[in-house]
């Protein structure tokens, strides 16, 4: 049996962490994976999480199974966060939310559901997109295409190309869109451009699947979630995967959710019943702890306010690192312009480093980035930034 098993390539993102972990260089820096580190290079345990966990510990509740669709209080809190408590889709009970195993798990149960009910549709992802999007939808059985997105000449979005592609997709196509903080490029659409995208997507009967893994890392929780609410208002089916890995710094707890908007309460109930079958046949029901932590934090006014403060502090520190990176690169490499790093949003910078330069960074300096040149600005800090800038200047 195993004689015919080929060695699979390393994962393009998590494989970098494996290589980084094995590296003995004390100056090593991991700019690969999308993880926020504080100025001491540590993944923070947020105070709102610590307090929510203290409350849960106090209760010492038994660890029973969660329902297939997750903790009810969590699903409700997520739905209100994603769509707004007073939104029509929540009020009219047309939205359903299912707790999922991180944002990836949410994408996968959405993909499996879609394969069952839209088996002939094809999936369209941005060029480029998060490395796992293509593999994930392909493993659910879909043909995955890409639509133009990033324009290396302007370091922004090739909007005409994107809109043209949307206008020519067959009705029923599944379009994966990044709600905010586009991964990997950090190039987001403007409000006006989103308006046009929503018009085309709903007008042509495409199926939008919004991936929102970085809510709060762009402009703020509400601003980053605006496009989801606009899609919900526009009518038509809608899929939204969201994750608290980054925004609650709960990476290992795998806390995410999939929300789907249907045309009526009755339709939503049928959708939920089928989604539960997908979950049951994959992993039965989601884990308890992370969902409880997030539900407690979101539903307790004091903890919710604390979360917003802590998330804002992460957002601000990343912005400071962007500024510092640009200023320091300017000093070292005066003939090149890096201002684009400041306008990119979220955790990443699509740096323009080539694969060969990324390899040199890794092999000669133990600075780890994704082969595409994506670097995680949220892993820079006041202690490692000079080392990283020196290394980048040398490979440039
Ligand atoms: C990333 O893009 O680095 C993160 O979303 C982590 C992952 O699972 O790839």
Q: What's this, in brief?
A:
By secondary structure, the protein is an alpha/beta fold. The chain contains 15 helices and 13 strands.
| Strand fraction | 5-15%
Number of helices: 15
- Provide the spatial order of strands within the biggest beta sheet: 2-10-9-8-7-3-4
* Helix/strand order: HEHHHEHEHEEEHEHEHEEHHHHEHEEH
Query: What's the level 1 CATH class of the largest domain?
Result: Alpha Beta
Are any ligands bound, and if so which? (2S)-2-hydroxybutanedioic acid
Distance between the termini: 47 Å
Gyration radius (Cα, Å) is 21 Å
Oligomerization state of this entry?
single chain
Indicate the percent of residues in helices. Answer: 40-55%
CATH superfamily of the largest domain: Type I PLP-dependent aspartate aminotransferase-like (Major domain)
CATH architecture of the largest domain: 3-Layer(aba) Sandwich
Structural domain tally: 2
> Which runs of at least 5 residues are low in confidence (pLDDT < 50)?
none
Shape, please?
globular
CATH topology of the largest domain: Aspartate Aminotransferase, domain 2
| Mean pLDDT figure | 97
Map the helices and strands.
Elements: H1 14-22, E1 29-30, H2 47-59, H3 72-83, H4 88-91, E2 95-101, H5 102-117, E3 123-127, H6 131-139, E4 144-148, E5 150-151, E6 156-157, H7 159-168, E7 174-178, H8 191-203, E8 207-212, H9 221-234, E9 238-243, E10 255-261, H10 265-282, H11 289-299, H12 301-332, H13 340-343, E11 348-350, H14 355-365, E12 367-368, E13 374-376, H15 385-395
Parallel strand pairs: 1-12, 3-4, 3-7, 7-8, 8-9
Antiparallel strand pairs: 2-10, 5-6, 9-10, 11-13
The chain binds (2S)-2-hydroxybutanedioic acid.
């Amino acid at each position: 049996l195993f004689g015919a098993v080929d060695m699979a390539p390393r994962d393009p993102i998590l494989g970098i962490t494996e290589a980084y972990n094995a590296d003995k260089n004390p100056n090593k820096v991991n700019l690969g994976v999308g993880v926020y580190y504080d100025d001491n290079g540590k993944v923070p345990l947020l105070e709102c999480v610590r307090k929510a966990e203290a409350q849960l510990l106090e209760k010492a509740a038994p660890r029973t199974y969660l329902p297939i669709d997750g903790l009810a209080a969590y699903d409700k809190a997520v739905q209100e966060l994603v769509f707004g408590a007073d939104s029509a889709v929540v009020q009219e009970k047309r939205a359903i939310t299912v707790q999922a195993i991180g944002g990836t798990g949410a994408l996968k149960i959405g993909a499996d559901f879609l394969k069952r009910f839209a088996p002939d549709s094809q999936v369209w992802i941005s060029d480029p997109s998060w490395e796992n999007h293509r593999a994930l939808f392909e493993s659910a059985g879909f043909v995955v295409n890409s639509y133009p997105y990033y324009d290396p000449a302007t370091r922004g979005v090739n909007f005409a190309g994107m809109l043209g592609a949307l206008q020519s997709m067959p009705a029923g196509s599944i379009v994966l869109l990044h709600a905010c903080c586009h991964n990997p490029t950090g190039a987001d659409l403007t409000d006006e451009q989103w308006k046009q995208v929503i018009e085309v997507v709903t007008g042509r009967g495409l199926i939008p699947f919004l991936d929102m893994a970085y809510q709060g890392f762009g402009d703020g929780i509400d601003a980053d979630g605006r496009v989801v609410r606009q899609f919900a208002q526009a009518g038509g089916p809608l899929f939204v995967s969201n994750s608290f890995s980054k925004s609650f710094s709960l990476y290992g707890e795998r806390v995410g959710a999939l929300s789907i908007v249907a045309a009526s309460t009755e339709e939503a109930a049928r959708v939920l019943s089928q989604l539960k079958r997908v979950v049951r046949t994959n992993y039965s029901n989601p884990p308890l702890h992370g969902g409880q932590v997030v539900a407690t934090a979101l539903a307790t006014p004091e903890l919710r306010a604390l979360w917003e403060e802590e998330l804002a502090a992460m957002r601000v520190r990343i912005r400071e690192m962007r500024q510092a990176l640009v200023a320091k690169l300017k000093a070292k490499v005066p003939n090149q312009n890096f201002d684009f790093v400041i306008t990119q949003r979220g955790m990443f910078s699509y740096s323009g480093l080539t694969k060969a330069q990324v390899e040199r960074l890794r092999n000669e300096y133990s600075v780890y980035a994704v082969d595409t040149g994506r670097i995680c600005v949220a892993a820079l800090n006041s202690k490692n930034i000079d080392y990283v800038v020196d290394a980048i200047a040398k490979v440039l």
